[in-house]
Amino acid sequence: MNKWLSRLAMAAQVLRYGRLPESSTPDLRHLSQEEITEIKSFFPMPKFFIFGHARSGTTLLARLIRLHPQVHADWQAHFFTRPPLLRGLVADSLVADWLSRRSNRWNRAEDLSPVLLRAAADFILEREARRLGKNIVGDKSPNSLLDGQAVREMHTLYSDAKLIFIARDGRDVVLSHRFQNFIDAPQHLSPDDHSIRSAFEADPEPFLHGERSLFTSKGLSQAAAGWARNLDETDRVARDLFPGQYHRLRFEDLLADPFQELSAIWRFLEVDPSGLEQVVASEMTSNPDADWQRQKAAGLVSNLEKGKRGSWRDLFTSADKQVFKQAAGQALIDWNYEKGRDW
Q1: Which residues are CB-contacts of 250 (< 8 A; sequence separation ≥ 6)?
Q2: Which of these ranges, 28-37, 111-120, 182-191, has the smallest mean pLDDT?
Q3: Tell me, which fold does domain 31-334 have in CATH?
Q4: Which helix (H) or strand (E) holds 108?
């Protein structure tokens, strides 16, 4: 019951503010370079993290990255991207006091919290990679609940790691997220949203041709602003905190030339991409998420092509376009999705 109450409270925060509040737990001190070097003697594998707004291709990217025989990636650890975060392990005041107690001779007169958290995360990551015979490991977790704060959280414990950020056209993002909510989270829909969902299921044609909106105006505006904020904050903070350790790409470019984009990422992770072109091409033919959605709610998604670029051109109404331009038009220009606002 407590778990469901917590999720409902989290959903209410997102609906009201478009994001979760930043963590109220005390700030962690950053791991020192000496501590990082020492920890890596126990957990030597290079680490990376994949961030991106939800529904931006993060899962596809992780699936492709781990095709390399040296690289493992899995998802949704949410170490830094969704409360209670990794730091939640030491949020209890009694635990924090124990880890920093002056009489504790094991903590070297420092708060032991960041060392414990880094060791815990490293163990979780490396045990899976070792089982698969791989020596580079990373997690992908969408950061659209905490945006740039997620990058800061990561930097506190993993200033030595690499960060990959994937962006997708926000108009397709909000559409994909809309249908995901229709299918996976109808219990969180407002009465107006339920009406739209029911109308679409009964007669999708007006929606599929941009004659009737899939959104409420307020909901679309909040979703668009959240997407723009995620791109701006994540990219800005990552460039500042991870110079030389940050790689960004667009979902559309990944679809257009998967091997070229993957080759750049694998080189960024310092592994050789040679000989993997056919493996990547084969993986691109599967879409487990689309298969799952068809099984769960075929009536809602049978007319949609999952992962398609530019679906918004058919489904956005004229009013939708104006709302999105006002909330996130500049972000579309900044990320080269549009050259201006006359779309």
Answers
A1: 166, 167, 168, 335, 336
A2: 182-191
A3: Rossmann fold (3.40.50)
A4: none
